[in-house]
Specification:
Elements (H helix, E strand, L loop, with lengths): L1 H8 L3 H10 L3 H10 L5 H18 L2 H28 L25 H17 L2 H20 L5 H19 L11 E5 L2 E5 L5
Antiparallel strand pairs: 1-2
Helix pairs in contact: 1-8, 3-7, 4-5, 5-6, 5-8, 6-7, 6-8, 7-8
Amino acid sequence: MAVGGLSALMLLDHPVQRFAQDNRGAGSNNVADVVRHFGQPEVYGTLTAGFIVAGLATHHERVAQAGGRLAVALLVAGVATGGAKVAFGRPRPEQSLDADGFRPFSGQAAMPSGHATMAFALATSLADDIDQPWAKVGLYGLATSVAWSRLNDNRHWLSDVTAGALVGITSAKLASGRWRIFHLHPPGLVATPSGMGLGWQASF
């Protein structure tokens, strides 16, 4: 279903790209420069480390667990996105207006959008843990603004950022245990002889 939806969405890639560039200006560039950081390591990396360190330091296991789930979500999202970029080999709109110019293993890396992937993984993980309407609206709004910034900057097609959102959301849902494969529980902090670590448990 997701593949079919993305294929249909590709019909809008060129119209949306033209609209974004026709309406691009100093104001939109300034906003994009700010919101883009939500999909970059200085934000998601700092937040993840902060949750884990703060949880362990203050002995708030739920905070540390939330950081652990976020770390796994981002790791899965990053690996999946990196592999997909190589496999698809799609050109960025700033490189070529041939949106169908897929050349696997060519070094072209438009699909999926890494910024959108990480932003939606972060937003979904935190929104699910906070579980409040204001958090869902705010976090998903920020993630959507990151996706928009990639269109504004002419770095991605509409279907690229949509694919990134799907990968990010899926990664977070798997890490939290809301979606499961192979009967895996969500990751948690477990005690080991050398200290605390992140572990997965299987249920059969």
